[in-house]
Amino acid sequence: MKSLKVLRGRGIVEGRCVAEALVSKKPISFLGGVDPTTGKVVERNHDLHGACVKDKVLCFPHGHGSTVGSYVLYSLAKNGLAPKAIVNRWADPVIVVGAVIANIPMVDGVDVSQIKTGDLVEVDAYKGIVKVLESAQAEG
Amino acid sequence: MYLTKEEERIYDGEYGWAKQVCMRILVKLGELFNASRLIPIEAAHVSGVSYKTLGDAPVDFLEALANSGEKTVVEATLNPQGLDPSHLAGRLPESLVKNQLKLCLLFEKMGFKTSYTCTPYYIKKPRKGVHMAWAESSAVVYANSVLGAWTNREGGPSALAAAIIGKTPNCGVHRAENRKPQIMVEVKARLEKDVDYGALGIFLGNILEDKIPLITGLGRPTLENLKQLGAAMASAGMINIFHHKDKIETKQKPPEKITVDSRDIKETLEELTTTSTPKPDLVFIGCPHCSSGEIREIAEKIGNRKVRTDLELWICTSHHVKEKTRRYTQKIKASGAKIITDTCAVVTWTDKLGIKTIMTNSAKTAHYAPIMNKAEVKLASLEECLKTALEK
Fold it and tell me: How far is residue B251 from each of residues B176, B214, B254, measured CA to CA in Å?
């Protein structure tokens, strides 16, 4: 498939997938910010409030908050609600550890503002490459 | 990052999922922070043990790890949990007690010592120059700055992984060049009371970001003064090591410099106090957990006086220190004060005990209590705290 955009970053946790993007401009705190039993973002005033992270390529600048947040990613995966991949601007310890224990492919060093919610993206976390395959806006 | 053949085998899963996931945590974090290899550690200390701060989030992962049968391979200790089994369990909702016990049993199953303290260095003092993976920020600062042991400020999961593998990546303050002072702090204020050291810590934590300070003008601080300074600094900022000296040769001085005067300390104390109530619901001493010396000092200061009946006085410490200081703790108990072990006011459910105002000599507690305990705070010296708690 021909890609509309190729974004190069750094592979953090290995893996590859193609899925729809869910993009946030804001950092995400998984502890208290995402419900591990529904997969929904519950942090108030968050631009993803109410959205479900299940099977998405979750794109956000970086994580923040308690290191307990790493465990939430594990529970999401156990409950079948984890994102297919994580794309960050800057990797931070909470998200890296979470992606490792939940085995979620992860790439950082990517300008996530180049990706829009609803875009179909391919993440190759072996090479650290994110490709936008179909633009959400082009369809809509 | 360079891995030995053995480390590679663990990384590839030849020794099972649990060791693999722990190794992957260490290696991925090492790569993130430019480590070149893993180094052996002598001790690991895990934070995030209280059900109040953890909630149910880690249960799935901890259960999987505990059920794998893997055990800690180094001296591995635990931070305070959510309650004191003998004093507070009966006063808290049964479901909280049950969930806390479940978490504790998972850690115990993995071979952790049931230390339940933020001051593991009072149980086993680490030797100078040893590498560790500790996760309680106040203990990290104390280890690096006072004891001369070397540890990064780990998160709960990375300290857990280090305890199971017995190694940590050689990044951050595990490298000598990353321990050097970067900014001079000249304290012009006279630090008269114990609480002034905590206030200085909060003030510095707020402005230093992650720059390592070389502090002058501390006078003759006790080890407990330095404990308060470091605990406060780490709670307000990203600091994990400080240096202090009275005389500094010019060539040792880092180029950047700030000064702290009496007004900075006074204003910090005022900012941390949110209530002027003459009668708090709780007077809390022991954040970080009291040393043997502090227990003795408190017993002597209390003398034969009694605690007022319309408030509670908690002295928090580890059960290890409590056992060692029985002579003094019995005296303290006779006053009506409670010696609380295994937990502290910040990580237990004070709101469920009807506590709305807390008076303390700990700047760290004052910093956290408005959010962690939904309580109003009064920060004052040990002397003033005891004066408030005891009958005239």
Answer: 18, 13, 8
